[in-house]
Amino acid sequence: MTLVELSIGLLITTIVIGALSSLWIAVGDTWRKSSSSQTQTLRAGQIVTRLEGTFRQAKYVCQLTPGSMTDTTAAPASAFFWRSDYWNTAGDVSNPAAFATAVSDNLVEVAELALVEYDAASKRLYLYQAKDPAAMNSTERAAAGTVWTWTDLSKSSNLTVFKGLSYVQRKVLSEGVSAAAFNMPAAKVGGRPVIEFTLTMPQTGGTTLIYSVASMRAPAARPL
Questions:
Q1: Helices vs strands, H then E, count in the chain
Q2: What digits encode the pLDDT tens for the residues 86-102?
Q3: How many whole angstroms separate alpha carbon 208 and alpha carbon 124?
Q4: How remote is the C-alpha of 217 from its chain's centroid?
Q5: Structure pTM?
Q6: Range name among 31-40, 167-176, 181-190 with the lowest pLDDT average
Q7: What is the sign of the dihedral through the CA atoms of 20, 23, 25 and 31?
Q8: Distance between CA 206 and CA 176 in Å, rounded?
Q9: CB-CB contact of 99 with 88 (8 Å)
Q10: Is 120 left (phi over 0), alpha (psi -120 to 50) or beta?
Q11: Number of neighbouring beta carbons within 10 Å of residue 156
């Protein structure tokens, strides 16, 4: 083999290796983008499932703050609601088992309330609600049975009071949420109330917009 032939062979080999390298780089980049997109889709699905499941159990929405998708100075989105009528007010507070069975009394005990709130600083959606009765002490079980009237339920400052109660726990519904807004359209006659929620989540190259609607239980009368 002459020097010229050898040089041509090396040149062809270099071109082929360069082409293969470019191909693998492109394949890797496509795979990374696809993987990121699939992860984002899964996260969005989880958020929708959790929020719909949380709002669906609501018996009556006592306070709703819409929040904003664009105005960072707006009060954060939140929904404060009566989630179920189950607390056994007459139960023996020294016996956790006395609260294992739901007892309906058409009154709103503090233990029956819940709050979903967006925190812009941490970019999280939080759920606040009472701990399981078995996890409370007797003093907390007694306090959890306190009845809140509409005056209490509609008082905006009581959101802070509720969050600060020793028997109310906070858990993360979702992380990585860059904006959140809630809306509750006027219910149609005979229709079930709904809560609309819109969220954005940052992703590579932009943001993901999430919109969904959660149907609440059958219409309930406003608590007294």
A1: 4, 9
A2: 999 889 999 999 998 99
A3: 15
A4: 18
A5: 0.81
A6: 31-40
A7: negative
A8: 13
A9: yes
A10: alpha
A11: 10
